[in-house]
Amino acid sequence: MAVQDYLRQRFFPHMWCPGCGHGTVLNSLLRAVEELGLDKNNIVMTSGIGCSARISGYVDFHSLHTLHGRALAFATGVKMSKPELTLLVPMGDGDALAIGGNHFIHAARRNIDITAIVMNNRIYGMTGGQFSPLSGCGIKATTAPYTTIDNNFDVVELATAAGATFVARTTTYHAKEATSLLKKAILHKGFSVVEILSQCPTHFGRKNKEGDAAQMMENYKNITAPVGSKALEENPALWGRGIFVERERPEYCTEYGKIVELAMKGAAK
């Protein structure tokens, strides 16, 4: 299948602002699905509320546009009932780690076979540019006109500590790298987290004088470095890119199936 076969083209043009990075994330994701040769009838995408959540409306997969912060909860329900399906969960700052934070850490703890895509633009874009748990200190937002004093979550460290068995990070500037990481995340048997830094020129860029979309993407090239590179060793302030965690651990649905089998044997006796 071609990339366009995975799209609901009748819903275009999309509603994202000009220069928003989320369209690039969608592109990278569709190319990953295409290159893996996945049957779209076996894919389910769940999303919550926000700019990032609109992705589920543009893909021709089985999709659930759900409550704010509950995308992983819905995905867990689908995966438990139909473990053979591929679950993709795109989330923004709030869906993933504000109202959705509890679902995030417990999905990671369980190691359920779901691919979580955290589209990190460090702002609440749809509701007017409020700061988020991923904004960090010294950031201007509508709710922080004199800059934020809140520390941000590190998505990679949090996902790792919570038990995710595949954890990666990239940016919209590195679109091909994003496709490669998403392919590996989807194929991984367990809870996979791919954080993608995604520019928001409308709110974050404008308020923090980071320029237009092209300048923000160029900045991603300058503030990141591959995991294990000399540049990252010499400058720890850079954001690492690549795979941070890739390990095997019993997957939740598989283990649950064993419990069901034991229960059925017990009932038969």
UniProtKB/TrEMBL annotation:
Q: Which Pfam families match?
A: TPP_enzyme_C
Any one Gene Ontology BP term: cellular respiration
Quick check: keyword Oxidoreductase in the entry?
yes
Q: Which domain of life is it from?
A: Bacteria
A single Gene Ontology MF term assigned here is: thiamine pyrophosphate binding
Keyword annotations of the record: Oxidoreductase
Transmembrane segment boundaries: none
Q: Which residues form the Thiamine pyrophosphate enzyme TPP-binding domain?
A: 49-196
State the PANTHER family in the record.
Answer: 2-OXOGLUTARATE OXIDOREDUCTASE SUBUNIT KORB-RELATED, 2-OXOGLUTARATE SYNTHASE SUBUNIT KORB
The protein's name = 2-oxoglutarate ferredoxin oxidoreductase, beta subunit
